[in-house]
Give the backbone structure.
Amino acid sequence: MIRSAHIDTFARDHLPPAEQWPDFSFNLPELHYPDRLNCVSAFVDGWIAGGHGNRDCLIAPSGNLTYAALAERINRIANVLTRDLGLMPGNRVLLRGPNSPMMVAAYFAVIKAGGVVVATMPLLRAKEIAFPVTKAEIKLALCDVRLSDEMEKTSPLAPALARIVYWGRDTNDSLETLMMRPGYEQFEACDTASDDVCLIAFTSGTTGVPKGTMHFHRDMLAICDTFGKYVLRADRDDRFIGSPPIAFTFGLGGLVLFPLSIGAATVLLEKAGPDDLLPAIDTFGATVCFTAPTAYRAMVGKLADHKIGSLRKCVSAGETLPAATFEAWRAATGIRIIDGLGSTEMLHVFVGCPEEDTLPGATGKAVPGYEARVIDQAGHEVPPGTPGRLAVRGPTGCRYLGDQRQLEYVQNGWNVTGDTYIKDADGYFKYQARSDDMIISAGYNIAGPEVETVLLTHPAVAECGVVGQPDDERGQIVKAYVVVNQGFTADMALTRALQDYVKATVAPYKYPRAIEYVTSLPRTETGKLQRFELRRRAVEGAASKLAS
């Protein structure tokens, strides 16, 4: 390791042992970074030094910031952190707020001052917030005052949290007031090492207890120099927009790091559902959109009421992109969605293709800079067309914060993502399921997401989730939870119609033997379907049926 700038050595002390790390590869010239690196210099300060300080950077309904204005705001917050709040390099700082210029400025200020960011989703409750505070031993939080209720409830649950500073209110101790002190407009970036931890991103908990993933300064640049450069291929005149929270690494990359790495601008919306995103694309002239498959599906039917002619690139991640959604969006807009597979552990996308190489129903190929393969339970690569576990390695990788699950995610130097994939003869990776989402019914292996993809092409189905339900005779049966579109009736006739539709589309043994109609599906704040919750419901439903 390179000499660390961290005085508080908590982050380095709680990295996994080096022998448990994945193998890292830096096989592109762009990935060879200097030993001393503070990534904020590359994302913000470098553009000002190059004479581009007056370019638009952050665009929001509340007002815009140029690169120079953002730099000054970052510097002022960094001075508050170090002079008024006693931040030492290596200290962790909790950030809470919706997507906004202040959230971005606070994020970069912590990193520029040598701190470690721990950002959390705005909708989390006190108990959920207390977990990362306790796990990462956080003493300081910066928070939007509109989220103060849950923040104040967190303190009794996490006694180590000694100070909360709010922005968005007119008081003597607010962040804005402290920022205005004379002489705070300049700040020299902490002389951090390229392998100093600058971010602990907690997973969304779709598979259980959240895990803290630790990322270095160099990792923040690496995702831009791989997916950003070779797959997304945006330029400095683009305007990015999207729905994922910045606290989610998909949002951090798509709405902050990728645009700022090329000197482009980004539109930050506090509310970015389909009904908000479509008019905002027109209002702000957005050209690059990042959102989830469910949002693209929802927006297709609303396009007639909006002008989105400025849009030229669309990226989907968070969960698999159904071929039906890809085709519907392309038919309506002429844009081929860039699908991407990423993970919080890897920081961002590592499988995906540029628009001209996209293949409907396939996630894509390994992003330049990364290697990906499909392996069996013993860790051996399987032949093309054979389902197996996806394994990947490259310039980023899994380093959990004090978590024994490191031994599950990293195996033989590879990051094993927990996804079941097939790799075809042309190198395209085709998603089958999360490894724990495979349904084994009467000896057949059935991928729940494949059945979901079929159901979503039926006009009656707005959303669906498919899991295995315990069954005495078959071991498991395929069970679908379905949200019905307006104009359709959730009854036995529809159930039979959907079952027949699946039988006619894929192998008949894959059809859902049980269908339950619901008004909504359980999702994380980032839009991911919580299949573990559906599995829990299915188990309870089977037990209830048996008891009756």
The mean pLDDT is 93. The first strand starts at residue 56 and ends at 59. The chain has three domains: 38-191, 221-435, 442-547. The longest helix spans residues 67-84.
